[in-house]
Amino acid sequence: EAMSRVQATTDYLGPDCRYLNFKTGEEIIKGKDFGYFPRDAVKVEEVLIGEEVEVLTKETDFLCLHEDKYTYE
């Protein structure tokens, strides 16, 4: 079973809380870290794992609160 693991090749600061922020050289593991980021900011490694982990989400995981207003796209 493969799990995606990527390493940041550049610093990235997302526009809001739905995006991951990271610095060059940091490792990002799908299933542990959650958020959007540009594909060209990382290099992908495939890693074999023994078990699959499902991360449950709900609609509010994709909301950002800015000055008492919700940003939802």
Automatic annotation (TrEMBL):
Domain of life: Eukaryota
Recorded GO CC terms: endoplasmic reticulum exit site; endoplasmic reticulum membrane
Any one of the GO BP annotations: protein secretion
Gene source species: Panurus biarmicus
Protein name: MIA2 protein
Keywords for this protein: Coiled coil
Protein's gene: Mia2
